[in-house]
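Notes continue from the previous slide.

Worked example: a multi-chain complex. Inputs as given:
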Amino acid sequence: MSKPKIAIFDFACCEGCQLQLVNLEEELLDLLGVADVVEWREAMSEKSDEYDIAIVEGSITRLEDEERLKMIRSRAKILIALGACATMGGINKLKNNFDLDDVKKCVYGKDANKPHLATQMTKGLDEVVDVDYYVHGCPIDRKEFTYIVRCLVMGKTPEIPDYPVCVECKANGNPCLWDEGQVCLGPIIRAGCGARCPSNGFRCFGCRGYVDNPNVDAAKEVIDKYGLNVDDLKTKMILFGSRQEPTIHG
Amino acid sequence: MAKTVNVNVHHVTRVEGHGNIVVNATDGQIEKVEWQVPEAPRFFEAMVRGRSYEDIQTIVSRICGICSITHSLASTKAVEKAMGIEVSEQADKVRILMHYSEQLQSHILHVGYLVSPDLFGLPSVVPLAAKAPEVVLAVIRVHRLANEWSDLIAGRTTHPVTLKPGGMTKFPSEKQLRDLQERLKKGVADLKAVAEAVLSAAGAIPDFTRETEYVSLKQDTPPTYTFYHGDITSTDYAGTVGINDWKTVANEYVNDQSTAKWTKWHRPSYAVGALARYNNNAELLSPLAQDIAKMFAMEKGCCNPYMNNVAQVVECVHVVETSIQMIDELLTTGIKNEKVKVTPKAGKASGCVEAPRGILFHEYEFDRKGNCVGADICIPTNQNHASIQEDFEKLVPEILDEGEDAIRLKMEMLVRSYDPCISCSTHMLDVQFVK
């Protein structure tokens, strides 16, 4: 079998997930041994219209970006969403909590209506095209990325955890950040990051998205136990999960 | 020879973010020379409104994956100043160590992976790895060292999670600091090898100068080649301007011929970045960094924008040598646990640090509960756009005889030399879509 051709693309984002690919260092060169990277604007001058696997970073915020993404989808056999902006819109979705005209005026004042500043509600990739695989996180975890690509090259389906960050956090032996008064989203957010943030004493802010069936009622119990209210949890949840939060009753 | 030239580079490669170059010349008459930025605007200043002071750094760190530590530090400093929060000397030192790790990460990535292919006449670092494996391996070792250094102090290589208003969520242990110090000492040899390699290819650095104003931080007490503390200065200004007054320096304005918000201080444009820091503070560099600058015969007052990349190499050595010293100081006093309790209050203030690619300003206002009511962010790449445009306007007539390929390459190299971080662009600049 010939080597699969990989192309890497980006939309509205910080490009920090592509940076994690560069951070693979020699492992990136190993990857080049099993696949041909035919386009990667951030790192290479070459460009190509032919590829088997498209790795796409960033969220969709403009009509022209939707068109470009659809074109990429039509050319690729497999499309991988790279990082939180691509998998669910990421931090850029915070914008969706405001009126769009207000957002533009806030930043650009009297220039707000210039055509190049046109913007729409932020979308994750799968709100525009079909996505085959998700590499979660902000930024992505390098090990998880190579695991997923290795699976694909070998024709296997990668297994992504569907249990909460608390599982990994407990395994790391960390004290619970709720005991320190931090509103940590560990109980409802998908693991796979090794509980990186709470292990460094920083609350989970949900960059990997929710587990498939988040137990929000249990989360509610936790809130009650610590004397907080649902709004405290909700404001933390919209940091990365704007307009997709599961309903919390009460 | 009829000098008819059409260069149209859509999305310059090997830069962070999206930028276009357009040149049209007919019969030696230049009709258009433009640096354009079509990056999708992301509206960070609007998105932070209503958010708790605790969440600001988590949001604005996402402005840029390459300078996420810098954005986190600038915003945290602004929050602390707005609320009158003091930070311990230990936390301050550890933050500077964290900041240095990002300078090294970003500079070595830029010089080693993105710029060096130009110097060696190759399209990317991949063929360079085949041509000069020992140099690329040295670059990789330094880059990994920088990443693991950030991992240790910031909790991650990108988007730090150990920073909080008032201090740190976690300090490295003394043993971890000692190990890091050993690795930094070993890294010096690799950095020298990288500097030698850049020197060997320095003939490929275009001979071009344009005198301009260079803006950076300046710290007098104690005199420091600063990235973190101090006030604003420039090569056109003998004094300093306080951080809260940064708007009197940046003077963001809309260009008559475009919708652009550019910046200017004493001239129609100014430049920021490693070369600006060098031109304001060179005598304060560490001894070995000064040696490296001498190797390249680099003088304070250098006005060749392409030399920004050499200044980055010099700064790599400086941050490593300085960090070795700082770790000694931390180990002498010993690492102590800190319990920080912050009470939010109303206030407004600016925070400033040097990003790898130049001076960065963040300003926030908070209500009495500590929720953000307004923000203004001015990033280094935006401050360089006017300078890139002015460089283009001087450069293109000088090289119009050299043919489209050479013109394109030199213009792309010029853009890369500034190390632009266009996805940072919180404000859109100079966008004119050419049919």
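Summary box: Residues 256-260, 423-435 of chain B have pLDDT under 50 and may be disordered. Chain B touches chain A through 61 residues (CB under 8 Å).
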